[in-house]
Amino acid sequence: MSAVTRLLGGMSAVASAAGGRRRLATVGLSGGRRRLATVAAPEHFLHVGPGGDWWEGGGIYAAKHNPGDYVRSLPLPVGTRVRGDVPAGELRAMYDAAAVDAAWLEPSWSAGDPTAALAAPGRCQLGDDWTPCALRDRVWIADDTMVATFDLPDASAPLGLSTCACVLARGGAGDDGEPVVRPYTPVSTNALVGAFQVMVKVYERGTLSRALAALDVGDAVDFKHIAFNVKIQFPFGAKKVGMLAGGTGIAPMLQALHALLGSTDDNTEVTVLYGSRSSRDVLAEATLDDWCAKHARLKVVHVLSDEPAGSASPHARGRIDAGLVEAHLPPPGDDALLFVCGPPPMYDALCGPRGDADAVTGVLGDLGYAPAQVVKF
After folding, report:
1. In this model, does residue 25 exceed pLDDT 50?
2. Please, which residues bridge with residue 246 across strands?
3. Which of 58, 318, 349, 375 has the most Cβ atoms closer than 10 angstroms to its Cβ?
């Protein structure tokens, strides 16, 4: 495989020949850094030429050459990318049709196969002191949600975070002028060396999330991990686990599922009730579908609260309620645990405030679940 360098529309690109076509991977022009600053998923395009040469990038490529070299910029759905094995003939067909063939798209991010890369509490690279970690990359997986990859201080070692646990990030400036601190559960495992990934929903008034979305590659964010961030530890000691997640509350569930499904000697049955606003807002859906297909002991039930009328989505409508809990999750008992993570109104409705671990109110309280059976992430 050979490589040549071209200048395309003011953007440096590397073209590598493969199978009679070239995929052109964009890189930055200033100090090796790409400008990523945005607070919502930017427009993303498949740029393809008549011969099948292609690359992905932001902005419409305005070709000023003869018609034989004309490049078409075809918009890609948020959270997708073009598969690396797309044949040149399919690319030429997309060029002729001036439209992307969804059959040749894949999710822009995946959690990969379930991986039980476990570490004991106290082994995390991040400790009690704030440690700057540089942004390596950012991938938008929904209109308002991204997965950000940060470099670790020791590039030769994994994060070393126990399961289940989270890290703290700080940034931006709150009303008092001080940096805002928020918890994030990494969606990567300790199999990733030298970096970790967090899933971030960017809120309109979210000081820290907007600051994270506006970072450039190479900019640093302070992180730390304290003993309070260590939650229930795997193995969880239950025959059945029910998970109630809303939005990015799926992140700690992914962490737990990596351990549960990635351990060959674990037989825990798991059901996930996952609430999202609409089918466009379901996060890591392809990952969850894949894990369900490969692991019969995992079931995921999606619930959409604001799906447009007439949608063909097969998912249930409404919100997670007592009926869904009774229909799909294990009943109260010594062999069952429930994990809950989502926005504050979800905690209030289902189990009571996140910070109150000693009481279970709401739907789960009414159904008879005891505090020892409900883990609030």
Report:
1. no
2. 275
3. 375
